[in-house]
Amino acid sequence: MKRLIITLIVVIVAATTIVAGERAGIERRSMAEYLDLSTSQGVAWEDAERTLHQAMEPLARQQRTERQQLEALLASKADACAVGAQQLRVFAVSEQMKAANQSFERTVQSILTPDQKAKLASLHDEHMKRESSEIRERHHD
Predict the structure, then answer these.
(1) Of 28, 54, 57, 62, which one has the fewest beta carbons inside 10 Å?
(2) How many Å separate Cα 13 from the centre of its chain?
């Protein structure tokens, strides 16, 4: 179960990083409009996104490499210690990705008004419900 959760986190983060690069301009405008960001808030948001992207891109590459090495160890039926050590390396990168996301969240929260925070929290809750529903549907098919 833990392995599934880590895999899902990695996939979501990697997909988000790729898609974010392609749709960043549209999403940024939409989010700025939805939250009614001031010009200075919009600039701070963009800076935070850029920082997140710069942190996540190499981590996503490293995560793919570490995961491939783990899969190779599993395929070769390597000893449990080697597999466990590699899983810890995969987990360590996941923790770095989590820390980058948390830093982004703290930055975003610091620039928003209470009303904007509430709007963003509501949007996040909707997104998480939709994600959970989609995951459940995929596993029941």
Answers:
(1) 54
(2) 3
